Structures are given as structure tokens and as C-alpha cells.
Amino acid sequence: MSDRLKIALLLAPALSIIGILFFGGLLIGFMRSFNYMPVIGLTDPDLSAYAAVFTSKEFYLSFLLTFHIAFTSTVLSSILAIGAALLLRRTFIGRSLINFLFQLNLTVPHLVGAIGMLYLFSQSGSFARLGAEWNLISKPSDFPAMVFDPYAIGIILQYIWKEVPFIGVIILANMQSLGEDYESVARSLGANKWQAFIHVLMPLIFPGVLSASIIVFAFTFGAYEIPAILGASYPKALPVLAYQKYTDVDLAARPEAMAMAIVIALLSALMIYFYVRYTRRRIRS
Amino acid sequence: MVGKESFSVRSFRVLTGIVLITWLILPLIPLAIWSFAKGWFFPDLLPKRWSMQAWDYALSDTAGVIDSLWLTIGISLAATALSILVGIPAGRALGMYKFKGKELVELLILAPTIVPGIAVVLGIHSVFISMGLNNTVSGVILVHLIPTLPYMVLVMSGIFANYDPSFEAQARSLGASPIKTFWHVTLPAIMPGIIVGGLFAFLVSWSQYILTLLIGGGRVVTLPLLLFNFATSGRNDITGAIGMIYILPGIIILLLTAKHLSGRSGAVGGFGQI
Question: What pLDDT, in 10s, does the model give residues A96-123?
């Protein structure tokens, strides 16, 4: 058997599954967003769903909210993860416990974290009770709204809880394989700690940070269950809005849902572009 | 970089460590407490009365939590088994051969790990209607392959990149059949990858929510769906108990594979999906 045929046969099952389910799903969504579906008699594609979506204020508010959630969560998680990794590469009391908790946290589904945040930060949650205990507040409504709130604080806190360990574990492995030789050289040449960090360590770990944050951004932009648990009723995060439109009793709203799904897909395509462009080296190795 | 660190630097480090440890376990604490609480009202810091009611309910035959647990295990096992079956050959092709279009193939397999489920599942749902796959367990297993398979392929291609095929050639020249060669030579060599990749694929399937919700159509109620329903209906005690049951496999898998979770293995990338 020639190598070419062998490779094709080895790849065929995986590529068919991903091709049919993933790209097929995308393609059908794309077609339906244009009201085009010859099988069920829709033969004239039009732009009505996009017109409806792009003229609706709810969509823009929803898009901005979702972008804010994804951007803020990604930036804060990345910064905190770098700090945590710097902390964890030194030995100190409790390091192995933190390491274990980081890994434990990786296995806990986002949904559980979201419910945890709900019980911690809602107006009758643990922190509100602590506030009442210390006489800072007298009734639940005195506690600042941190879940179901317009700034999505609870959602962002949940993502930080889950993503700092995720990015942190990747950066830490990165730092450990680099060793400290580069920084030592910089220090012996007269750089101070801060300069050695900014000019030597940061550029070295940056590809790892970037690839992890791209994954985090795409995930936080497209996740459903976390904003569905912790989000405000208006505006909703884009995936929640799309699901709501799709399951609307009015079937005419379905193409609009598909159009929103395409917006999410386009944004993640952009993420894939960045991922491949800037972090290709990492996957190859 | 060596040299003695000052006392203040060390205490700062320990202090940050304590804050970090607290923050990492904090969200799980109210869940655990709720599962043993019998009414826990504002402003009580701890429940006034404790009870096993939520656990009795969750573990009873009639509540459906145990059925849902078995269903979720079954779906995740099936999705994992299929991913292993399909992921091994694909990983072999990507890990051991250089060929034209390899980068494109890698990109196609990588794409589902970044594109969120909601972007593809709406389209799949409208096709599955005509195939009768909506509201079925098989339909749910199939869509779970979208997040689990790419991940398995990536892990296996890493394994095959460091694999020496000359042992296979030797076995073959000594008269072993292709099946025997695979069983006695290849399989033992790639077993570590299958186990680690499989356990993580299991967890990825275990954590799926929106794919199951839409394709299962409310008929296929896995544990996360049940958990969500109880959480949004305000039954905090039962939510706590189901939440504890739900995170258990992750903890068990962690204890089995802790040393593979260092982030140096490509495997850790899959945790972006959980």
C-alpha cells in the first residue's frame, strides 16, 4: 500500500466525523441564516435574518456584553495566571497544595463553578451573610448586585476562578522548561528583577500565554450555561440569546438564531487565525 | 537569582499563597454545606439545622439522579470509546507521516477545539430532525464527538510522534499477522496515551451542557442538565448534593493522572473545554 493511500485511510474516519458533524453543522447553520434550505422548500436566499439581527438594539447590547465578558475575563485571568505561575515556581509552604488545587479546579466543570459563585455572591449569599454578621448591611438588598448584574461581575469572577489555573498550569510548565538561566544572565549583566521579568522572561513565555488566552477568549465568548446561570435577563449573553431565539415558539426567529451563531463562529474563526499565526510553533513541538 | 530572600518577600509569598488557596476552594464550600443543610436562611452564616435529606433524595431510586448518573457515564464512555477508535489511526497519520496538506488537516481537526458548541449545534439540530437523531442518546453521543475527538487525535499524534515503528516491522518479519502486531506491539506502546487521552476525553464529554440540551431536547437528561434545573429552581440543598456527585469523577481521574497534568503534555489544552 502506498503511503498516500495509507495516510488517507488512517485519517478518513476522523475527518469524516469532524467534516460531517462540525463543518456540516456550520454549513447548515450558514445556509439557514440566509433562509436557504432547498430540502424544505426554501429556495430563495435572502438577508432578512441578518437585517433583523443587525437592526436590533438587543443584539448590539448582547454582543457588547459578551465581548466585555470574554475580554475582561481573558485579560484578568492571564495577568493573574502569570502572577500565580511566578509564585508557584518557588518552593514555599503550601506550594504543593496550590498545585493540587490548580489541577483539581481544572477538572471541575464550569457549571459547578457558576453555581458556587451564585451561592457566594448573590444578595443572600455567603458574602452578603458575612456583611450582615459584621453589620455592614442590614438586609440582602443592601449587598451590591454581583450576580444577574449589568456588568456581569459574577460571570467574570467564575471565569477567573476556572481560567487562572488553566492558563497558570500552561505558563508554569513553560517556565520550568525554560529554567532560570536566561534571567540569571540578564541579572548578572546588571538588569534588576523587574527588567529581567519584562525583557527576558515575558517574551519567552508570551507565546504560551497567548495560545492559552485565545482558547479562553473563544470559550468565554461562546459558553452558554455560565451566563445562563449568572447573567442578567437583559441584555443576555449572545449564546443565551441565540438559544432563546432558536427555541422561540415563533419558528421565524430560527434564522435569526442561526445568524447569531454565525457571528460567534466568525469571531472564533478570527481566534483560530491568531492561534495559528502566532502560536503555530507551540503545537508543532 | 539565588541569594537569601528577605523575610518580607517570603511572607508576601506565603500570604498570596493563602489567598490563592482560599479562593480556589471557596466556591465549592457553600455547595458542600447546602447539601447537608435543612433550610439555611439569611443571615445565618451556617445552617441552624443539618440533615441528610438532600442526599437521601439524590440517592433514592425515585428521584432519577442515579439514573441520570448512569446515563451520563454511559454517554461519556461511548463518546470516549468512539474517540479512541477513530483517534488512534488519525493520530498515527499526523504523528508519523509528513504529507502534503498536513497543516490543513491539523487545522480542520483543531477548529472544533476553539469554535464554541453553540455555533455549530443549531445547524446540526435542524439536520438531525430529518434523521430522527434528535432527542436520542445516540444523537447526543454523536455530537459529543465534536469536542472529544479533536482532543484525542492531538494526544495520540503526540504519542505517535515519539513512536518507533521498527518494532512493528520486526514482529511482521517474524511472521506476526497485522492484527497480532497491533495487539502485542503497537497497543502496549501507545497505551499510556490512550489512557490519558481517554480519561480527559471522558471529562470533556462529562462537562458538555449546550450540546446535550439541544440535541437531547430535554429527553436525554444528563447530570449537568439535572444540576442546572435544580440550581435554577432554587432547590439549593439538592443542587449541592448533585454538584458533589457531579465533580467526583474529575477528582478520581485527577488522583489517577496527576503526574500527566503538568501542562507540559499537550493533554492539558483540552481543559479549556471543561
Answer: 888 888 889 999 999 999 999 999 999 9
